[in-house]
Amino acid sequence: MLFEAIKKLFCADKKAAENSKVEHGRSCACKSMDKKDASASNVKLSDLEDFVSYVVKNLVDAPEEVKVETVVENNAKTIRISCRKDDTGKIIGKKGKTIIALRALVAGAAGRMQDRVSVEVAD
Questions:
Q1: What backbone phi and psi angles, to 5 degrees, belong to 56?
Q2: Does 111 lie in the same domain as 79?
Q3: pLDDT tens digits for 76-98?
Q4: What is the C-alpha radius of gyration for the chain, rounded to an integer number of angstroms?
């Protein structure tokens, strides 16, 4: 499930993602595509929101209390995560490494959409 979501977000060509061969334990579907085929028209902001929701719900103790919403204000897109106070630390991670990694994944996928999207954890 997670790998399918990542393939959808980062591999523009669905057929290449499905037919990817594995070299040294890594998928090579994205490497073989040229710049002309890199249209990310099939990736939407809702896909990013679903991805963030999936990851966060698997990190926390109370996944039923996690709410992920997208806010668009003045041409700035933000995915906001709200959860229990006890679970906030799990989302942020030690020295912020977990939220930094999640932000990097979202920024990379948003870049393929020719867009900028930030991720915030609500207090």
A1: -65, -40
A2: yes
A3: 899 999 999 999 999 999 999 99
A4: 15
| DSSP bridge pairs for 111 | none
Instruction: Verify that 32 and 47 share a domain, yes or no.
Output: no
Residue with token string 């996944």: 63
Are 68 and 108 in the same domain?
Answer: yes
When divided into structural domains, the chain yields a total of 2
Q: Tell me, yes or no, whether 33 and 51 share the same domain.
A: no
CA distance 54 to 92: 15
Clarify whether residues 97 and 56 are in a common domain.
yes
Give whole-number Cα distances, 78 to 7, 28, 33, 45, 85, in Å.
22, 30, 29, 10, 20
| pTM, to two decimals | 0.70
pLDDT bracket for residue 38 (50, 70, 90): very low
Query: Residue 60 is part of which domain span?
Result: 43-123
Q: Is 6 exposed, middle or buried (0-12, 13-18, 19+ CB in 10 A)?
A: middle
